[in-house]
Write a structure and sequence with these properties.
The protein has a seven-stranded parallel β-sheet with strand order 4-3-2-1-5-6-7, with helices on both faces. Strands 9-8-10-11 form a four-stranded mixed β-sheet, with helices on one face. It contains 16 helices and eleven strands. The structure holds nicotinamide-adenine-dinucleotide (NAD) and magnesium ion.
């Protein structure tokens, strides 16, 4: 029987940028409270077996999952002598999520993270959610699985974590709107023509946040904010008309709640993901972190402006999907994942990302619209994801011809 003062944790997507920041928080906590205060149940990676092996040496997890099987032998050799169990392939991610950790960080990129998020949600745990795509794909279904199984879903995305900190659920009928800020990404001051021709290197060079390549491209196109308004709708149960986006290049005001009495509450902090992660780590308490506090007198100004829909059409595509319903949001996410992957491979122009998504969203016939309505089951969620990827790949071929 495990000592109840020991925190048991799992990190899904342990080798990524959010994985790094999460493990940094854990290192700090262990240094303060002793290495026995935290027990790592499971860690997962896609293909970065070297980094995963290093983490085994450092944290001695009970279980690790490597989704990409081609590096199995390298991984086994690198951790020979450790009694960590190894799972290989996408199903191993689910096994990792099923390990009995009390606190789970979901930080896999994309819909690939959904099966493991779902498994953790079914188990009843504290689920720190960075993997916004999982919620965009499955929306209300995932929220109800969490509610039914006593899983506490805590937002890690900085905007949603900020709103969570100032959103009073007891006064939700007094909330006029919630506001998510956007840094504006690397192309904030670029012309439409320049943006159209942007290269992968330019798109992933984010001016404020150091993140994985997929979310960096999403930030450059503003699709990241599009995914986030859908994420916010589910997390806070607000209507689409209650969600606003403001471009705020300094990225220190992360999210705001406008109440009907005229109060506007905001959470501010340095643009460092360890802040929302530490919040989700300790909630409902708080912990001390080594993150440098924000010093307002050192900031010369704070700017806010509405996003430019013409130069950044992705945000409007997401708004339309959100208005249309859950299946549309799922198709939007799948089309975006295909478009971003093609762009990063050099097989699609930056300007074609939104074009491809728009083509997929409009790919209905007079008899049928495959993206209509709300998903009735997770099987349907996975089917629509698959179909939208197929349609996106077909449409991409036509765009490239
Ligand atoms: P990243 O690319 O740095 O890391 C992704 C992690 O997921 C890695 O561990 C990788 O091995 C794993 N992974 C990727 N594809 C996989 C697959 N098909 N199967 C199994 N594992 C896979 O990305 P990141 O920046 O850490 O972002 C992770 C998630 O957190 C994304 O959903 C992103 O939108 C969200 N998020 C990130 C930030 C940030 O600042 N980085 C902020 C808010 C939200
Ligand atoms: Mg965010």
């Amino acid at each position: 029987m495990e000592n109840s003062s020991v925190k048991t944790i799992t990190v899904l997507g342990a080798t990524g940028s959010i994985g790094d920041a999460t493990l940094d928080i854990m290192r700090e906590q262990r240094a303060k409270n002793g290495s026995d205060s935290i027990k790592v149940k499971a860690l997962t990676a896609n293909s970065n077996w070297k980094k995963l092996a290093k983490l085994v040496h450092e944290f001695h997890p009970e279980f690790i999952a490597l989704a990409d099987g081609q590096f199995e032998n390298d991984l086994r050799e690198a951790i020979a002598g450790f009694d960590t169990q190894i799972g290989i392939g996408p199903d191993a991610l689910i096994t990792a999520a099923a390990c009995d950790a009390h606190w789970v960080m979901a930080a896999i990129t994309g819909a690939a993270g959904l099966p493991s998020v779902l498994e953790a949600a079914k188990r009843g745990c504290v689920l720190a959610l960075a993997n916004k795509e999982a919620l965009v794909c499955s929306g209300s279904l995932l929220m109800s699985i969490c509610a039914k199984n006593g899983t506490t879903l805590l937002p890690v995305d900085s905007e949603h974590n900020a709103i969570f900190q100032v959103f009073d659920p007891a006064q939700s009928n007094m909330v006029e709107k919630i506001i998510l800020t956007a840094s504006g990404g690397p192309f904030l001051s670029w012309s439409f023509e320049q943006i159209k021709k942007a290269t992968p290197a330019q798109a992933i060079a984010h001016p404020v946040w150091a993140m994985g390549s997929k979310i960096s491209v999403d930030s450059a196109s503003l699709m990241n904010k599009g995914l986030e308004i859908i994420e916010a709708r589910h997390l806070f149960d607000v209507s689409p008309s209650q969600i606003d986006v403001l471009v705020h290049p300094q990225s220190v005001v992360h999210g705001l709640v406008q109440y009907k009495d005229g109060s506007l509450l905001a959470q501010l902090g340095a643009p460092d993901m360890r802040v929302p992660i530490a919040h989700a780590w300790a909630w409902p308490n708080r912990i001390v972190t080594s993150v440098k506090s924000l010093c307002l007198s050192e900031l010369s100004r704070l700017d806010f402006e509405p996003p430019d829909d013409r130069r950044f059409p992705a945000l409007n595509l997401a708004k339309h999907a959100m208005a249309a319903g859950g299946n549309s949001c799922n198709a939007l996410n799948a089309a975006n994942e295909v478009a971003v992957a093609l762009f990063l491979q050099g097989n699609l122009g930056f300007g074609q990302i939104a074009e491809l998504i728009s083509t997929v969203m409009n790919s209905k016939t007079s008899e049928s619209d495959p993206w209509r309505g709300e998903p009735q089951s997770f099987e349907q969620v996975f089917e629509i994801d698959k179909l939208a990827r197929y349609v996106a790949l077909q449409s991409a071929q036509r765009l490239q011809d």
